[in-house]
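Q: Here's a chain of 314 amino acids. Please give me its 3D structure as tokens.
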Amino acid sequence: MKTIQQILQAGVVLTVLAGLSACTTNLPNRAPVVERGVEQKPSDTPPVEAAVKPPVKAPDNTRGTYVVKRGDGLYRIALDHGQSYADLVAWNDLKNPNDIKVGQVLRVAPPDGTATAQTSGIANSSVEVKPLTNPATNKSGPRGDKRPYSESNLAELQKTDATVVASVTPTPAVKPDVPVPAKAAEPVAPESDSVDWMWPAEGKVVASYDDAKNKGLDIAGKLGQDVLAAGAGKVMYAGSGIRGYGNLVIIKHNSSLLSAYAHNKAILVKEGQSITKGQKIAEMGNSDSETVKLHFEIRLQGKPLDPMKYLPGR
């Protein structure tokens, strides 16, 4: 028979085994066993993004055109671009020139005014291409000949090598001087388009040229005073259709230069009329002005210039 001590020892063993079993069942799930040495690759690889090409810019076809803005008139557009009112009407096939609309695109240069870029004769000429010769690589004969040592042979070899090195050493290019960007200058008419200018009226200059406020000169005078053509040319415009100028005369002197005479009391010339330098073209007045004066402008391809730089000194 088992003794009481043996029974107690057996009970303690069973209790310990039961506790271990309970701990095992409460353990969290073990991580999956990964076999070492095997590379684990993700099942789903991220898609490769296609290279996005930048949008292609549309060619600029707006050269020589103008978009009508609020308050614009065809006469003012013609003046600002150095063109005649009649030409704008013809180039744009306008049935009613007074009915231009905001946003409308107008041609302000002749259809054939922009010369087609011509390739130079160099591009089409046949050029004979010859391989470059290098004295160091193009040998006329073997140079591996052996000579007995002597002072004369050594000097001759050194002289030959120095000549070859000098012939193949490239001459360093002379770096051109980088021009310092100059301040943007006012456009100047070429000598072929120069005009022999004179003052259009007698009187005191009461307002000088200011690119932001005044596009020309204001010359004070008397009502009915003579207004003279500052240079020879042809009348491009004569009327009162440009707001702010009153009775206005515009003379075109050549392909790029014109002059304007504003606020006249009366206009004495007609459009298309040839004018000589110093010819009376109008009478000074105060149309569209609070005082009697002549507003005088010189424009190069529609852009206003400072008349004081072109008129002779008084």
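Q: Can you summarize the key feature?
A: DSSP finds five helices and twelve strands in the chain.
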